[in-house]
Amino acid sequence: MQTTGAAGHEPGTGTGRAGLVKRLLPLAAILAGIALVFAFDLDRWLSFDALAANRQALTAFVEANHLLAALCFIGAYALVAALSIPGAIFLTLGGGFLFGTWAGAAYSVTGATLGATAIFLAARTALSDLLRAKAGPWLHRLEAGFRDGAFSYLLFLRLVPAFPFWLVNLVPAFLGVKPGTFVLATFIGIIPGSLVYASVGNGLGSVFEAGGTPDLSIIFRAEILLPILGLAVLALIPVAAKRLRARKS
């Protein structure tokens, strides 16, 4: 005779299926958002040309409604980061142009951190358990090593501009990193790059007048990149020190 649960559901259905749907819903919403963005070509607004074409209207809106404009900017940046849409760098440029270097960088960092946290939590909820079950012992070893110095590793990955932002959002989710660690390392780690591009954006007025384009490779100049890489190396010192103590013991 087949037994049923207290609510009359067969084992493996009902609550289990509803729980699976609930877990997958945030990720499904993000995937649907990505599909809509590319279906309606909304990513075209994330470009230097779009910023140049709408700069007067945007500037007027910021001057008339600074707080609302800042909130809209942070929300837009969070959405772009959560959907992993290419072109967030132009939002940072726009933030510097519209709000100034420091405020533009602060708003960009806030929006990027919120968006990154959203996709991190969605992936962590929907896929991490499945990936662990399928990946085998190698993922568990990697997870253990990452957890030993999660903040340092994440800070390093955020500071080095060679690592894609969307990838660094997902990998920690699969390796069991705590949300608090993820948020703090993300917030701190993206500050230097955001300040660089916001400062470029702050000078866009003269670029627009000259009909030119900003130098987006500025972050790879030695005088800028080397200090950032130095910070990245410093971020790994706690991990190196911990491993050295472990070997000695």
Description of the structure:
This protein is mainly alpha-helical and 249 residues long. It has one domain (21-248). Helix content is 77%, strand content 0%. The protein is globular. The N and C termini lie far apart (59 Å).
Observed structural traits:
single chain, 249 residues, mainly alpha, 77% helix, 0% strand, disordered N terminus
Give the topology, please.
Elements: H1 15-39, H2 48-53, H3 55-64, H4 66-82, H5 88-99, H6 101-126, H7 128-135, H8 137-148, H9 150-159, H10 165-174, H11 179-189, H12 191-202, H13 204-210, H14 222-235, H15 237-248
End-to-end C-alpha gap? 59 Å
The fraction of residues in strands falls at: under 5%
Q: Cα-atom Rg, whole angstroms? A: 22 Å
Largest sheet: none
Structural class of the helices, strands and pairings?
mainly alpha
Low-confidence stretches: 1-14
| Annotation, overall tally of beta strands | 0
Shape annotation:
globular
Report the helical percentage.
over 70%
Average predicted confidence as pLDDT: 81
Number of helices: 15
Order of helices and strands: HHHHHHHHHHHHHHH
Total domains: 1
